[in-house]
Specification:
six-stranded mixed β-sheet, 16 strands, 21 helices, Rossmann fold
Length: 642
């Protein structure tokens, strides 16, 4: 719901004047005759579309359903109506209606309006609220406003409506931790949001927000209200009195930054806090929402990170991950710290949560530390597979807000860290096929630079893997080509492997098939059954997906290579490259990953690959016809002999 739209729900005992109050708000004058209940009405008041929702308290189940249907991420407020004519209705505000709201776990603002119609003594009293509401009402922090008014007074009714609109748009109770004993303490989600804002504007990455950075934050959020130097000095003195360790010559720490906004909250300026949070894309549930109006990503195109995007992610890694490793060796500290970065997004903690993180890329397993190469590889993978989700998470991290590290004279759109790939590709996807127990998992472990194990732990069993690979043209002839050649260069080629277990007829229904750049067909070099499975699989792939190249790989070549001659003969018949012999157990890969990248790069020119696969298909058909003719000829000879 937009900030120009507000919903107000009216609750209270029967006969206290809920419908009368709504009618007075609609017509801006007292209405003598009103129906028992009104249908929801939308009124445009003060430039705000306000929905007024009446309730029928005689239908208890329907009222509970109305409360349960409230979306707390939208702009809502509840007006509890009572009447001095019915004193019991005032007590029911706490004992009945407030309990009902709390049972629904609704953290939305509440306004209590007491109808004191025809009681001029209370209306004219300066302490009218104290006369009607006892101290127990003040203890409920979810109640943000008390009003005693005559529903016949149109000015008082209009003032109540304006107050309700403002409270709904800038609710105090949503900012507070209602379970905390401290009155002006922030909700944990608000603290996470402030942590993200602090990280974005700490541009020198020293862990402090200096005066320049604080002023930059204020100017971005409140453009028409420049921050005076005297104001910063006042904040400094306040923070120093509360917590001397939260302020230094370098500026405010994160704790000091939170204290500043607690002071703002205590002085009743929650409107400033909501302006700040919404400037950074937060809704009323403190979940990050991406800006609207951004261009959509086309499914037929491929995307990658721009150089400014790579620089930004490197900066984020240095700030959150590397610094954490230098402070301690807690094995969970790094993952917990990264989790806090994405805690403002409602769908999941990590953009790669469904891809087997953290075992889907290279990492130091002894210390459970993710290197920069692995961190960037994960981002290249998610940008390649799910660019829209990647853009959302990058915006969450603060890309587009910081300005000090932008690449000057760049041809890239600095507002978006993702760009379309044309013929210059640095990320490829290869699907890995093969018979059961042919060594696919060990092949992927070798790709992730992990040692060979006879039995892979279930938690480390992944179907997705990504790593950076040196380009084939960059490999020296003098290098040892038996082991994989990986690169730590940020701009190197990134290869994504996805292990697939399926039957041949299911090939056309594979996810990400349209984005695949190569097929890796593995077979056990010591098994006839595995070789036969691979042969059928290659024919199915060629016939169903003729535009994708095939890399033929023979695993377990250290055991018994007697299938090699048959595989080489079949490769010649199908006009494909001979199988690459690898041994995961001995760490021998014969530059297979570089070959996959080279074949994937050639797949950019679809006509070349299509001609190659057409030749393969024709060769396979010709060999099949020759074999069929030979068998027919033999059968005729046998018949003549007998």
């Amino acid at each position: 719901m937009d900030r120009k739209q507000v919903s107000l729900l009216f609750l209270g005992d029967h006969g206290v004047g809920k419908t009368t109050l709504i009618k007075s708000m609609i017509y801006e004058s007292f209405q003598q005759n009103v129906p028992p209940i009104l249908n929801p009405v939308i009124e445009d008041r003060n430039g705000i579309q306000t929905e007024l929702i009446d309730t029928n308290v005689l239908n208890y189940s329907k009222t509970c359903h109305q409360l349960a249907s409230i979306n707390q991420c939208d702009t809502w407020a509840i007006i509890l109506v009572c009447s001095q004519t019915y004193p019991k209705s005032i007590g029911n505000v706490l004992t009945k209606w407030l309990v009902m709201i709390q049972e629904q776990n609704l953290r939305i603002p509440i306004i209590v309006a007491c109808n004191v119609m025809d009681n001029r003594d209370i209306i004219q009293s300066h302490y009218s609220d104290c006369c009607v509401f006892g101290p127990e009402f003040k203890e409920c922090r979810q109640i943000e406003h008390f009003a005693t008014l005559d529903f016949k007074d149109s000015k008082a009714v209009n003032a109540l409506l304006e107050t309700a609109q403002k409270i709904a748009i800038f609710p105090l109770c949503k900012l507070q931790d209602l379970n905390s004993k401290t009155k002006y303490s922030f909700h944990p989600d608000v603290i996470n949001a402030f942590r993200r804002i602090f990280m974005i504007y700490d541009e020198d990455r020293d862990g402090y927000l200096n005066d320049t950075e604080f002023d930059l934050l204020h100017n971005d959020c409140f453009k028409n209200q420049p921050l005076q130097p005297l104001t910063i000095q006042k904040f400094r003195s306040f923070v120093e009195q509360i917590d001397p360790d939260a302020i230094s010559e370098k500026g405010f720490t994160l704790a000091g930054f939170l204290i500043v906004w607690e002071i703002v909250l205590e002085y009743g300026s929650c409107e400033c806090i909501w302006t700040l949070l919404r400037h950074f894309g937060y809704n009323d549930c403190f979940h990050f929402q991406q800006a609207t109006g951004l261009p959509d990503f086309e499914k037929t195109k491929v995307y990658t990170l721009t150089p400014p995007g790579i620089e930004f992610l490197t900066d984020v890694y240095e700030y959150y991950v590397k610094n954490m490793n230098e402070k301690g060796n807690d094995t969970d500290s790094q993952l917990r710290r990264v989790s806090l970065i994405f805690s403002v997004i409602s769908d999941s903690c990590f953009p790669w949560a469904n891809f087997g993180y953290p075992y889907c890329t290279v990492m130091d397993e002894n210390r459970q530390i993710l290197p920069l190469r692995g961190f960037l590889a994960l981002w290249f993978m998610i940008v390649f597979l799910e660019p829209a989700m990647a853009r959302k998470y990058l915006s969450c991290l603060g890309y587009g807000y910081t300005r000090s590290k932008k690449v000057e004279n760049s041809n890239y759109d600095l507002s978006c860290p993702i760009t379309e790939c044309n013929f210059s590709r640095n990320t490829f996807l290869a699907l890995v096929f093969g018979s059961p127990s042919c060594g696919k998992s060990s092949f992927i472990r070798g790709f992730l630079e992990k040692p060979f194990v006879d039995s892979i732990p279930s938690k480390e069993r992944v179907y997705w893997a990504v790593n950076s690979v040196k380009k084939s043209s960059c490999i020296s002839q003098d290098n040892d080509r038996s082991s994989p050649s990986f690169s730590s260069d940020q701009s190197s080629t990134h290869l994504i492997l996805h292990e697939v277990d399926l039957k041949v007829p299911e090939i056309s229904n594979l996810p990400y098939l349209s984005r695949s750049n190569a097929f890796c067909v593995l077979y056990d070099n010591s098994s006839h059954e595995s070789f036969s499975y691979a042969e059928k699989l290659i024919f199915a792939l060629v016939s169903q997906v003729p535009s994708v190249p095939i890399v033929f790989i023979a695993t377990k070549s250290d055991i018994s290579p007697y299938i090699t001659k048959n595989s080489i003969y079949m490769s010649k018949q199908l006009n494909i490259s001979s199988p690459i012999l690898i041994s995961s157990k001995n760490g021998i890969y014969n530059s297979v990953f570089e070959t996959i990248c080279s074949e994937s790069a050639n797949a950019i020119y679809p006509s070349t690959v299509k001609r190659q696969h057409t030749t393969i298909l024709l060769a396979f058909i010709c060999s099949s016809l020759l074999w069929l003719g030979y068998q027919t000829y033999r059968s005729k000879l046998v018949k003549r002999h007998y």
